[in-house]
Design goal:
The complex is a heterodimer of chains A (240) and B (288). Chain A is of the alpha/beta class and 240 residues long. Helices cover 36% and strands 26% of the residues of chain A. In chain A, a hairpin with a 2-residue loop joins β1 and β2. In chain A, α3 (99-105) packs parallel to α6 and α4 crosses α6 (142-155). The longest helix of chain A is centred in the last third of the chain and has 16 residues, at 172-187. Chain A is globular, with a radius of gyration of 17 Å. Chain B is mainly alpha-helical. Chain B is built from 11 helices and 2 strands. The radius of gyration of chain B is 19 Å and the shape is globular. The A-B interface holds A 52, 54-55, 75-77, 80-81, 85-86, 88, 92, 94-97, 101-102, 104-106, 108, 152-153, 155-156 and B 164, 167-168, 170-171, 173-175, 177-187, 285. The structure holds adenosine-5'-triphosphate (ATP) and magnesium ion. Magnesium ion binds next to α1 of chain A.
Chain lengths: 240, 288
């Protein structure tokens, strides 16, 4: 079997003294979409931040490998240049930069990149950003900022794309639009970890699903398993 | 007579504002990107002035001395960033204290090498006679210093607003962590900005020499002014440093000329007001 695109194994992380991730393990296969679900505070964002070594978080134990190469312990910019690109929760645009500049600064050339993202291609994907190319990112609407956050991550030509709640705070039509975009990226062969609270959106898009609770992985399986068994969702996510 | 006074004071103010811009633009960019006030920045300026003095004594041409003096200080800035500040990454208090310590060290070395006497730098021969126009005499050298500062401002503006490197620096000022997260090599930017800031301060020191002289205490005279400029203009904002430099240039010059006893009062009052009512400065984004 080919190596996993992203393989997280036994990951522990701490905020200061407080132990927030406990031996988190999951694997993403190339070209697939892994949905990461969990209640508020389950540790999903912490997990993304630990992979990227952001927010004073770093892997205390465990390994993170990207196509077989261990990247745990690298600096965040080095990790991004290796090809793990994050759409962060809350978008975190560079507010005083224009839309075009936000995309420009995130561009990474990568040898053997199948995708070859450019500013023009991002503008093709999100025509609304093209119209606002010269506008400051801080003045965009929430939906436009989300598109820009996705576009900015794509500019890094990700080998693995991490998306942390891209549907958060968006009106239903926009959620559907973001969903279509993600489906399109997946169809182009992009490997994606999708963190979501929106269970339906996740199950529509995901091949595999991981559910976290209080910093631990409590379920790992296929999306179909969950679709067939409501008990899994009600047990771990406390809904339905 | 009266007119001549105002014109001369105005020119002195803008020329001094130009020097302040050379000093504080780098100070502000470093502050915005690395989140620390580089308390050695005044010492960089003084060191530039002393380097200029010695290079002129060695009969180097004035503008070459300004360039070489600036680069010499820039080199010291790089060493300081790479070998000292970088090791304290994440420890901002430690970094600030280190910059203060280094400023004392530089001041002591200057005292040792150049003694305690003020060292005069002479302006280039051609610029010494005043420029006569419409019956008034204008100090030529100061006009040239102003022109150089404006050219530097334009160049910095183009660098910051029109290049990818500038956009990356601004991204780092906006959100350092996210900048790293999208693959921007922020620590290399730190070195670049430190080199740039130290070089500008050094050039400012040489150019300021014929106006201010090189003397012990030049560092501690200049540093508070750079601080005020950045607090007024906002850390990390080039426009803020530009506007702030000329505001402070005017207040400082006219304060000394008109109410010498209250010069520091009129200088620091606006800073206090801005800190209280506009903590991000006039154009800034970074909370100080
Ligand atoms: N900066 C911090 N310092 C200390 N504890 C934190 C910090 N940030 C998050 N936590 C704690 O870590 C745990 C996991 O938080 P995290 O943000 O990863 O959850 P999440 O699954 O992303 O939740 P949400 O769906 O609300 O975004 C929570 O208990 C939270 O309170
Ligand atoms: Mg979260």
């Amino acid at each position: 079997m080919a190596t996993e695109a992203l393989d997280i194994s036994g990951l522990d992380a701490y905020y200061g003294d407080s132990h927030v991730l406990h031996a988190v393990s999951f694997a993403l296969k190339g070209g697939r979409l892994l949905g990461l679900l969990g209640r508020n505070g389950a540790g999903k964002t912490t997990c993304m931040a630990t992979i990227m070594v952001m927010g004073f978080l770093k892997p205390r134990r465990g390994s993170i490998s990207l196509y077989g190469e261990n990247v745990a312990g690298l600096a965040p910019d080095a990790i991004a240049r290796k090809g793990i690109c994050l759409v962060p929760q809350g978008r975190r645009m560079f507010r005083t930069l224009t839309v075009r500049e936000n995309l420009m600064v995130a561009a990474q050339a990568r040898k053997a990149a199948g995708s070859g993202w450019s500013i023009d291609r991002v503008f093709e994907l999100f025509p609304r950003l093209a119209e606002r190319a010269a506008q400051l990112a801080g003045s965009l609407s929430g939906g436009e900022q989300q598109m820009l956050a996705i576009g900015r991550a794509l500019m890094g030509n990700p080998r693995v794309l991490l998306m942390d709640e891209p549907s958060e705070g968006l009106a239903p039509q926009l959620v559907a639009e973001v969903g279509r975009t993600i489906a399109q990226l997946k169809a182009e062969g992009q490997s994606i970890v999708l963190v979501e609270q929106n269970i339906k959106l996740t199950l529509d898009l995901a091949d595999d699903v991981v559910i976290m609770n209080t910093g631990r992985v409590v379920f790992r399986g296929s999306a179909n398993e969950i679709k067939l068994d409501d008990a899994i969702v009600s047990q771990h996510l406390g809904v339905f | 007579m009266q007119w001549q006074f105002w014109i001369i004071q105005t020119l002195n103010s803008v020329a001094f504002g130009g020097l302040l811009f050379l000093l504080s633009s780098g100070f502000s960019l470093i502050f915005g990107l690395m989140r620390i006030p580089n308390l050695a920045h005044g010492a960089f300026f003084m060191l530039g002035a002393y380097f200029g003095f010695t290079l002129l004594q060695l009969k180097l041409q004035f503008w070459l001395a300004a360039l070489a003096g600036g680069l010499g200080v820039g080199l010291i800035g790089i060493v300081m960033e790479r070998f000292v500040l970088r090791r304290l990454a994440g420890n901002e208090q430690g970094q600030v204290l280190v910059t203060l310590g280094i400023s004392f060290i530089i001041a002591d070395i200057c005292l040792l090498v150049w003694t305690g006497d003020p060292m005069p730098l002479s302006a280039p021969q051609a610029l010494r006679p005043p420029l006569r126009f419409a019956g008034f005499a204008f100090p030529t050298y100061r006009l040239v210093v102003l022109a150089i500062a404006l050219a530097a401002a334009l160049a910095l503006y183009l660098l910051m607003e029109r290049t990818r490197l500038g956009a990356m620096i601004r991204a780092g000022v906006d959100d350092t962590e996210m900048a790293r997260g999208v693959g921007i090599p922020v620590s290399r930017l730190f070195t670049t900005v430190f080199l740039l800031g130290a070089t500008l301060a050094g050039v400012g020191g040489v150019l300021g020499g014929p106006i201010l002289n090189a003397y012990p205490g030049l560092d501690t005279d200049m540093l508070p002014l750079a601080l005020i400029v950045v607090i007024l203009g906002g850390a990390g904002s080039l426009l803020g440093a530009f506007v702030g430099s000329f505001i402070v240039g005017f207040i400082y010059n006219f304060g000394i000329a008109l109410v010498p006893d209250l010069a520091y009062f009129v200088l620091f009052l606006p800073m206090v007001l801005v800190l209280v009512f506009l903590p991000q400065g006039l154009f800034g984004r970074v909370q100080i």
